Amino acid sequence: MSKLFEKKCNNCEKDAIPLSHEDIIKYLKQVNKDWVFDKTSKTICRHFSFPIYSSTIAFVNAVAWIAVKEGHHPIMQIGYGYCDISFTTNAINALTENDFICASKIDHLMDERDVYV
Questions:
Q1: 30 and 7 in contact (C-beta within 8 Å)?
Q2: Based on C-alpha coordinates, what's the Rg of the chain?
Q3: CA-CA-CA-CA torsion sign (78, 18, 35, 108)
Q4: If DSSP states are collapsed to H, E and C, what string results for 46-63?
């Protein structure tokens, strides 16, 4: 089985199949433990902290590049030294594998954290 960060997002259309609660739990085990899902099981989110604002902005730009490349875009809230990221599949208002693929790509990016600090 390939790692999630090695996969490519599928096209998210209205006929995409939402993940079951059991599948969400399975996928959560494949991403960083700091990713959490809301009680409705429609969104995963994670808080990222950085020592300086320029590191935050570099990270946001890298996440934006991933989002454009994958065609799957998060909600990002940024401030001095932090970025909060949330994923859901808007076309069906639910979680799909794409949300976890992108979360995994961001985790992989953070493994290379030296770039941002």
A1: no
A2: 14
A3: negative
A4: EEEECCCHHHHHHHHHHH
- CA 55, 37, 5, 73: dihedral to nearest 10 degrees? -70
Give per-residue pLDDT as tens, 11-37: 777 778 899 999 999 999 999 999 999
In this structure, what CATH number is given to the domain that contains residue 61?
3.30.1360.20
| Helix 97-111 / helix 21-28 crossing angle, nearest 10 deg | 10
End-to-end CA distance of the chain: 32
Q: Are 74 and 43 in contact (CB under 8 A)?
A: no
Range picked from 4-8, 43-47, 87-91, 113-117 for highest mean pLDDT = 43-47
**Residue 7 is assigned to a structural domain of this protein:** no
Structure confidence by residue, pLDDT tens digits, 41-100: 899 999 999 999 999 999 999 999 999 999 999 999 999 999 999 999 999 999 999 999
Please give the tally of structural domains in the chain.
1
Contact 88, 94 (CB under 8 A): yes
